[in-house]
Amino acid sequence: MQLADVLRGELGTYKSGDYLPSETQLAQRFGVNRHTLRRAVDVLILEGRVLRHKGRGTCVLPTPIVYPVNAASAYSKTLSGMGFRSEAILLARRQRPAHPDEARDLALAPQEPVLELQTLRMLDEQPISLITHCFSARHHAALEGYGGGSMRQHLERKNIALKRVSTLIGARTPSQRDAIRLLMPRHTPVLSIRTLSSDATGKPFELSRSVSRADRFQYQIISGERHED
Amino acid sequence: MQLADVLRGELGTYKSGDYLPSETQLAQRFGVNRHTLRRAVDVLILEGRVLRHKGRGTCVLPTPIVYPVNAASAYSKTLSGMGFRSEAILLARRQRPAHPDEARDLALAPQEPVLELQTLRMLDEQPISLITHCFSARHHAALEGYGGGSMRQHLERKNIALKRVSTLIGARTPSQRDAIRLLMPRHTPVLSIRTLSSDATGKPFELSRSVSRADRFQYQIISGERHED
DNA sequence: GACTATTTGTTCGTATGTATA
DNA sequence: ATATACATACGAACAAATAGT
After folding, report:
1. Among A24, A197, B60, B97, fewest CB within 10 Å belongs to which?
2. DSSP structure class, residue A148
3. Which nucleotides of C are covered by protein (CB under 7 A)?
4. pLDDT tens column, B150-191
5. Which residue's alpha carbon is at the shortest distance from the C1' of C21?
6. How many CA atoms does the CB half-sphere of B224 hold within 13 Å?
């Protein structure tokens, strides 16, 4: 822990992307065994400050900034208002049969086809959230033109106004796939948010599941306002 | 990882509270070095399944169950309605000068005294949340009789109806103190929730900060209803 | 209370495998 | 093809906490 403290203090002398001196060199410099040094670096990895690459070295990660995200408005609007470049990239679009719980929440027949869109939300060039939107395939026309950007804005252009019905917020460590796509260590917690939204008629329309880096993302709710996206 | 899988599979053969065979014995049985065995056990510790005690051994923890908590009503009510014994224990009560951000949120003069109450919320004998309530010391009379149980109910008996103003939800790993009080490993994420509530006149009254085991607690928001505790 | 055996905690030395440049 | 750097494993020793005598 002492060694980890020293190393953590020295991280500021590197630029993000820099590689630390090799384990052998650092171990020699501090007069400890390479194992001992590795265990100290393990702490920094658990904290998400550095990343080890076999055969290459240990590189320094950018210090994350925490962005509070207001639940009352769309992601993009809040964030761009704060002067950050917000971007949403469409990663995948596919059609598949609904899972039992999806069918229940979206009021579909079991196995009825759903349209699944997966987007990656970036903030200041840094991945923040991985969002999976799930709609009944009946609505595929409304989602035809979507190729990234704000999902809510896109639906508004199609004259569909969504209203949040329920939100479930939890935290966990990311799956390996999620960790890779969010460029984060597996040991750093993520906020996992699941929302169900209905259209103007009150019928369930969209089920969204998102995974967000908790070290860069906080969920804010201002009461009195309605929270939508 | 292979060894960890084997060990995890065998955990079912122990009762919670049992101690595993010693590291030397297990290492010998699997034909690996003690280090290797320790690294496998590290995985189970990270998963929160076992706990190591120096000089004593490695004991098996009870498998946690996840209880969804509806944010729209008081903790206690929702949970007791589900048939779980919910309990809130008063850990500490003290008066101290307000921190700058507390003074800001509660609209106090800098350094003005605040009353801090810390409670531990248990569910089925298991610690779930650690809550720090913070009030202006001017309200000490209203909190005189409180010795545990639902804070909201207590204030209602004093004719104080709180209204949630804002909620900020994040996730992180617990501090050592928090991990100890929640009887959880430091590597398992916690939900950290910060709320500001005002009284009927709209003046800020209570600032609460809570830390909850994310493996046993989820935050649910049902729209349309007001979310209060 | 002192002593001893047991068990986990930590560090070192050494060797070998594997990915990368 | 080679050197470098991280990944993994083994063996040994000692420290520190615990439990029992």
Report:
1. A24
2. B
3. 6-14, 17-21
4. 888 899 899 998 888 888 999 998 887 888 788 777 788 999
5. A56
6. 8
DSSP states of B175-220 as a string? Answer: PHHHHHHTT--TTS-EEEEEEEEE-TTS-EEEEEEEEEETTTEEEE
Query: Which chain A residues contact residue B214 at CB under 8 A?
Result: 170-172, 189
Residue B167: DSSP 8-state: E
Shortest-distance nucleotide from B24 CA to C1': C7
Pair A11, A62: CB distance under 8 Å: no
Which residues, 6+ apart, have CB-to-CB distance to B23 below 8 Å?
B34, B37, B38, B41, B58
> A–B: how many Cβ contacts below 8 A?
86
Q: How far apart are CA A197 and CA A207, in angstroms?
A: 6
Distance in Å, residue A188 CA to nucleotide C9 C1': 25
The whole-model pTM stands at 0.79
Rounded Cα distance between B134 and B132, Å, is: 6
* pLDDT tens-place string over residues A199-219: 989 999 999 999 999 988 899
